[in-house]
Each structure stands twice: as C-alpha cells, then as structure tokens.
Amino acid sequence: MGAIHVTVKLSRPATQDYESLFLVDAERGATDSLAPRDPMLAAGFRPVGKMTYELADGTPVEYEFTLADIAFMGEITSGRVILGPNNAEPILGVTALESVGITVDPANRALKRLPAIPLK
Fold it and tell me: Which architecture, in CATH terms, is 4-113?
C-alpha cells in the first residue's frame, strides 16, 4: 500500500500552531502522533512526560511527548504528540484517526469517514 498524507494542525493554548503534512502510518499502526522536536518547541509546545516507544525495527527508544489539539479533515481531537527527531516525518497516529471516526481504506489508499463512531 502506498503512503497516505493529510494536512494536520497542532495547537494548544499559549502556543503557535504547528501545521504540516503528516504521514498516516497505516502499515505499522503508530498509536501516538509524532512531530519534529525543535519546530514544536519553537512554537511553544513543552514536554509533559516521557514514554518508551518501539521503532519499526523493534528498537525501544524513549521520547518526550506533549499534549495538543489535533485538527485534520475538518475534525478535531486531542492527544499525545511525540517530540521526535528533527529529521523525522510527522506521523498521524491511529488514536487520533479512530477518535474522530476516520479509518484507512487500503484498497483506495485513502482516508474514509465512518457513518458513526462505534461505542462498543
């Protein structure tokens, strides 16, 4: 399956917005979203915690994360955003997608809105 990208805006009170094209990690299913550390810090975002994440090759790495409002495709949610390496491509995690009822349609390599968000 080819890469899917979507424009995402990250915001939080007392910060500047961070907006970029984010990769939708449909193949490996990254849980949390990720954005490059220095641009996020320059926009006023601050770390609120640390978590150990597993890279695609299985290597565990500890990253700081922040909290942000995550807006894309006319929807908004809130969640963790990993303060990743400065050369990393921004990634939109599955938690953000699922929380607003958007899934990946692998056959068409596109994002698809669910008619309703499951509560079960």
Answer: Beta Barrel (2.40)
Query: DSSP code of 66?
Result: E
Domain borders along the chain are: 4-113
The SS3 call for residue 28 is coil
Q: Is 76 exposed, middle or buried (0-12, 13-18, 19+ CB in 10 A)?
A: middle
Answer whether residue 1 shows pLDDT above 60.
no
Task: Give, in degrees to the nearest 5, the angle at Cα 110 between 79 and 114.
Answer: 65
Half-sphere exposure of 89 (CA within 13 A, CB side): 14
Summarised one tens digit per residue, pLDDT across range 49-92 is 999 999 888 999 999 999 999 999 999 999 999 999 999 999 99
Threshold 0.70, pTM exceeds? yes
